[in-house]
Amino acid sequence: MATNYIIGTSGWHYEHWRATFYPPKLAKSSWLEFYARHFHTVELNASFYRLPSEDAFKTWHRSTPPDFTFAVKVSRFITHIKRLRNAEEPLHNFLERAQILGEKLGPLLYQLPPGLHRDDEVLESFLAQLPHGWRHAFEFRHGSWLDDEVFQILRQHNVGLCVFDMPKLTCPLVATADFAYIRFHGSDALYSSNYSDEELADWAKKITQMADTLKTVYIYFNNDIEGFALNNARTIRTYLQAK
To answer: Model's pTM, two decimal places?
Structure first.
């Protein structure tokens, strides 16, 4: 079974990309359409800070080609304020809004706060609320969660572990669902360091080994400074296509 690698960046609306990626005179309202000519997916980060309007989701859907995929970062109100507890209503509201993307909706990313320690009961209770038929991935920012027993809980619900690369905290390259989700935040400096070709070639090798039985692997680069994310995404795409 051939694995489908869907590769892009975390966000696209960066002013400092105007000189290195977007044409200088291109209106910001056309940036997503331009971005979608070069990449088949993007990770929506604005949804983490506030719930986008219905019109925003409709515009994003309309501005991209039929085969484009949006990964959507779930509201921090659910992950950071409610901390996965008593979140039925905001979760329902968020999912209702996200499904406006229709066939272009990819995985939903739940990034937990660094101060949230492992609690299997809370995790299992929250996972039980998630609708089947959607793709969900969890990015744990406290090391206590990075444990085989937690990974097994995710497997039972076919929920993905978001594998991440960042300084000071290492996440194992493990798949817990029929898809994988990987985020690159920068190996030396958070959100800003540039991955070398050698680093990306090594990552590509490890990813292909991990993805041998997977349908899809989503990969996003979150090191947007100086357009590093754009170049790194292109480079690893080349390596994975070659393999």
So the answer is: 0.96
Q: How many domains does the chain contain in total?
A: 1
Q: How many Å apart are CA 238 and CA 5, to the nearest integer?
A: 11
* Residue 184: φ, ψ to 5°: -110, 115
Q: Which of 136, 156, 31 is nearest to 84 (CA)?
A: 136
Contact 78, 50 (CB under 8 A): no
pLDDT, greater one: 206 or 190: 206
Q: Find residue 110's DSSP bridge partners.
A: 138
Taking the CA atoms of residue 162, residue 110, residue 28 and residue 231 in that order, the dihedral angle to the nearest 10 degrees is -10
Question: Which residues are bridge partners to 165 per DSSP?
Answer: 170, 184
- What CATH number is given to the structural domain containing 158? 3.20.20.410
Structure confidence by residue, pLDDT tens digits, 118-144:
999 999 999 999 999 999 999 999 999
Q: What per-residue confidence (pLDDT) applies to 1?
A: 65
Pairing of strands 169-170, 160-166: antiparallel
